[in-house]
Design goal:
The chain is α+β, with helices and mostly antiparallel strands and 141 residues long. The chain is built from three helices and six strands, in the order E-E-E-E-H-E-E-H-H. It has a four-stranded antiparallel β-sheet. Strands 1-2 form a two-stranded antiparallel sheet.
Amino acid sequence: MPDDVLVNERLVIPAAELSWRFSRSSGPGGQGVNTTDSRVELSWNLLASDVLSPTLKERAVERLGGRLIDGVLTITASEHRSQLRNREAAEARLAARVGEAIAPPPRQRRPTKPSRGAVERRIGEKKRRAQIKRGRRGEMD
């Protein structure tokens, strides 16, 4: 039975809310490639879930808007040859996506002016470079 998905220390998605589908994966796999259902699709209905508070749910829907289909987030994993490793990869990817989606927004940057010394150093360096280039053209004073 699949386990719960740990997103962060305060958020766990219960296994009962997850839906798994398995299919044949493309790519290498030897003789078993045509018989093994190693490709994994993990789906989680974000809108129907009670795990997230309304604020976090709104933030997640806003950030995951392009990835949601009818409020369902679907993660696909087929990079490994075994179904178990693809399951683990899909769980990790789901946790990472949801964690990024519910993370608080970064603090607003406070605009600052460069110090007078920094401006003087920048202008002085520009004048030195111009002097060097003038010297290459033979226009030295």
